[in-house]
Amino acid sequence: MKLSTEHIAVAYHDQNIIEDMNIEIPDGVITSIIGPNGCGKSTLLKAMSRIMKPSQGAVYLSGRNIHEMKTKEVAKEMAILAQSPDIPQTLTVSQLVSFGRYPHRRGAGRMTAEDKEAVEKAIEDTGMMEFKDRTLDALSGGQRQRAWIAMALAQETEVMLLDEPTTYLDMAQQLEILELLESLNKKEERTIVMVLHDLNHAARFSDHLIAMRDGTAEHIGSADEVISKPVLRKVFGIDAYVVEDPRTKKPVCMTYDLVGRHLESVPDKEDSQTMANA
Questions:
Q1: Residue 198's closest CA among 85, 32, 28?
Q2: Measured between alpha carbons, how far is residue 25 from residues 111, 168, 208, 213 in Å?
Q3: 56 pairs with which residues across the strands?
Q4: How far apart are CA 125 and CA 127, in angstroms?
Q5: Rounded to whole angstroms, what are the CA distances from 3 to 71, 77, 190, 222, 243?
Q6: The pLDDT of residue 124 is above 50
Q7: Rounded distance, CA 23 to CA 45, Å?
Q8: Which residues form the ABC transporter domain (predicted)?
Q9: DSSP single-letter state for residue 100
Q10: φ, ψ at 17 (rounded to 5°)
Q11: End-to-end CA distance of the chain, in Å?
């Protein structure tokens, strides 16, 4: 199921945030959008998810302009998890996840056996069965995020969009959420698009990266192509030392400084690989 943008521009109060952007999201992989604050990452995600309408151009889902589709049609094909969802914290996990069945239900009718099965599966797949009767305010940050992801899973869409899914979580909780998304992608081949701030998380868990700056896509490619000294210099304005993680074989930004400042000599990725092979 192809998700793409064609010459889109998005503006806030007559100020362009994104200009003339063409993006194609690969099917069945994890794509992360990275870039400095204010570069338009979340705006791009909102435009692709139909939350915001481009001032020019169009967003296409399986060849159809999403702004010409009915809301339920879009929701059957694409789930969106916003950064700070606004919903009563007194809901139980099961109640929250059941909202994911809205696109598949007729009017205000009761949930069918198929709906209930989808809810149970989503709760089980996210490891939340023991918490399904707990209210959201009784959960940890990581558990709440799993509950939200379960709601998105219950929509049974091929595409999931997530805006900074690890925000406000501690290191272990961040890893749990990203490993969960990676598992869902591999098991069910769901297309996942997410905005991330942590470069090393983006490199480790993504197959495809979009590096943005000033409302444009500066560089698109694999982790090896994007998490590199020249790209990070251009996008973030930093001099970075990048090495290869010995466990994942993915690039890791070990240390960095602002462009123009001197760092002690630390081997970058190519140098460390040469040393490893020596």
A1: 32
A2: 33, 27, 9, 18
A3: 9
A4: 6
A5: 16, 10, 12, 18, 32
A6: yes
A7: 11
A8: 3-239
A9: G
A10: -100, -40
A11: 45
User: Are the C-beta atoms of residues 128 and 120 closer than 8 Å to each other?
Assistant: no
Q: Which residues pair with 24 in a beta bridge?
A: 4
Predicted confidence (pLDDT) per residue in 205-249, tens digit: 999 999 999 999 999 999 999 999 999 999 999 999 999 999 999
pLDDT confidence of residue 262:
58
Q: How far apart are CA 44 and CA 58, in angstroms?
A: 12
Q: Token pair for residue 132?
A: 């399904």
What does the mean pLDDT of the chain come to? 91
Judging by beta carbons within 10 Å of its beta carbon (0-12, 13-18, 19+), is residue 174 exposed, middle or buried?
buried
Q: How far apart are CA 141 and CA 146, in angstroms?
A: 9
**Under a CB-based contact definition with an 8 Å cutoff, are residues 82 and 111 in contact?**
no
The model's pTM: 0.90
The model's pLDDT over 74-101, given as tens digits with 9 standing for 90+, comes to 999 999 998 766 788 899 999 999 999 9
pLDDT tens per residue across span 172-189: 999 999 999 999 999 989
Domain ranges of the chain: 3-225, 228-278
Pairing of strands 15-25, 64-65: unpaired
Q: Measure Cα distances from 159 to 3, 25, 94, 101 in Å.
A: 8, 10, 22, 15
Give the burial class of 74: count Cβ atoms within 10 A of its Cβ; 0-12 exposed, 13-18 middle, 19 or more buried.
Answer: buried
d(CA 195, CA 161): 9
Alpha-carbon distance of 41 to 32, in angstroms, equals 10
Residue 143 CB contacts under 8 Å (≥ 6 apart), including other chains? 128, 131
Q: Quote the DSSP letter at residue 135.
A: B
